[in-house]
Amino acid sequence: MKRTLAEGTRKQHRVLLKKLIEYGKIERFRDLTPEAIKLFDEWLHRNPRFTRQSSIHGVHKRLKVYVGEAVLFDKLESNPYNKVKIARDDGEKNRKFLTKNELMLIR
Fold this sequence. Notes:
Distance between the termini: 54 Å
Largest sheet: none
Oligomer: single chain
Strand content: under 5%
Mean pLDDT: 88
Number of helices: 4
Low-confidence stretches: none
Radius of gyration: 18 Å
Helix content: 40-55%
Structural class: mainly alpha
């Protein structure tokens, strides 16, 4: 299926492909099981390029598009992501906000 994608989106899909190649354990749609997705997610968490959960979620978000089409075209019986929960963001717990005093020192 031909898609019209913005360059930024294309870049994000290339990141997904690169990470799948680096990981090396998911080569075909049949390799995509809930267990394989969890192992891939754990591998991504150990990857120094991804410092935020939102970046890891973005990789899964792109992969889900292809998984959905694989189900649609009978390359997969069911969507393995239906059995896996990937958090979107780690929220504000890891963010460092400036205190009021720190803000006052900026001039």
